[in-house]
Amino acid sequence: MRILIADDDAISRALLKKTLERLKHDVVSVNDGTAAIAALLEAGGPRLAVLDWMMPGADGLAVCREIRLRSEWYIYVILLTARETAEDMVIGLEAGADDFLTKPFNQSEMRARLWSGMRVLELQRGLLAAQEALRHHATTDHLTGLWNRRMILEQLDRELQRVKREKRPLTVAMLDIDRFKAVNDQHSHAAGDAVLQATAAAINSQLREYDFVGRFGGEEFILLLPGCEAADGHVIAERVRMRVAAEPVRYDGLSIAVTASLGVATTSSESIIGTDLIAAADAALYRAKEGGRDRVEVSASVIAS
């Protein structure tokens, strides 16, 4: 494990470094608190630190306070000190220290306290991983990997707020896979899942890096195109439509032809709400279906202020 040691005494620092390296740790060594703060806050910096209480630049307490205030990740801190009173321990804990070692340190005690710190960090890694898994589950459609309905609608609200602030248009496109029920009925629901996944990938391949896409439900997807006038939104929607139809979906020996219909609506209004914009795009999508499918229809009029 990478461990930072900070001590202005060269002999103490060398002894500590040698001890930690004997325990198979990768050691980052600095001689003052200012350098310790910089090393601990840099991307990929050490997650465990052994700090001398008294140092130039910033003492161990100041280092603790600074990293607790500024670090995006948890750093386990062991203070190395000759102080032993309960009052000193309280001061150190209040500054953000996790543990203490008395100078001169005992190597067996050092090993035990390092193990304690590593267990805490490992527990934190597990908790963060579980938190991220829960967040992913709550925001992502498990089949396509796209945002789910709740997340894409929340993003739509954010983009409409941006329309108000920046006076820039927003285009929404609703996409529906043509005759999707027949895929499920004639082949299988697993084949239908493969079509959904292929369609999601086709959509993503044609969007700009600042566009958004989510699965709206069933075989329907919603695309958010910030800054797009109606004509530009139509161009992007056409690219998506052609990409979806470009290649059949291969699944379990089958070759499944897939097309999609899209409805596009654009707004520059400061008062439009998301449901109205979606309704306009959905009405255009209905016209695309009625007009023969595998086509793009644009809302009859731009929704303006």
Write the element-wise H/E pattern from the N-terminal end onward: EHEHEHEHEHHEHHEEHEEEHE
Main beta sheet: 5 strands, parallel
- Going by CATH, what is the homologous superfamily of the largest domain? Reverse transcriptase/Diguanylate cyclase domain
Principal-axes shape call: elongated
In round numbers, the mean pLDDT is 91
CATH topology of the largest domain: Alpha-Beta Plaits
Q: Class of the largest domain in CATH? A: Alpha Beta
Which residues form runs of ≥5 with pLDDT under 50?
none
Which structural class is indicated by helix and strand composition?
Answer: alpha/beta
**Residues in helix, %:** 40-55%
Give the neighbour order of strands across the main sheet: 2-1-3-4-5
How large, in whole angstroms, is the Cα Rg? 29 Å
Strands, count: 12
How much strand content do the residues show? 15-25%
> What is the CA–CA distance across the termini?
59 Å
How many discrete structural domains? 2
CATH architecture annotation of the largest domain: 2-Layer Sandwich
Quickly count the helices. Answer: 10
Describe the model:
The chain has 305 residues and is α/β, with parallel strands linked by helices. The protein has two domains: 2-138, 3-Layer(aba) Sandwich (Rossmann fold); 149-298, 2-Layer Sandwich (Alpha-Beta Plaits). Helix content is 50%, strand content 21%. It is built from ten helices and twelve strands. The protein has helices at residues 10-22, 33-41, 60-70, 86-95, 107-139, 149-166, 180-186, 189-206, 230-246, 274-290; strands at 2-6, 26-30, 48-52, 76-81, 99-102, 170-177, 212-217, 220-226, 249-251, 254-256, 260-267, 296-298. Strands 2-1-3-4-5 form a five-stranded parallel beta sheet, with helices on both faces. The chain has a five-stranded mixed beta sheet with strand order 7-8-6-11-12, sandwiched between helices. Strands 9-10 form a two-stranded antiparallel ribbon. Strand 4, helix 4 (86-95) and strand 5 form a beta-alpha-beta unit. Helix 7 runs antiparallel to helix 8 and helix 8 packs across helix 9 (230-246). It is elongated, with a radius of gyration of 29 Å. The termini are far apart. 34% of the residues are buried.
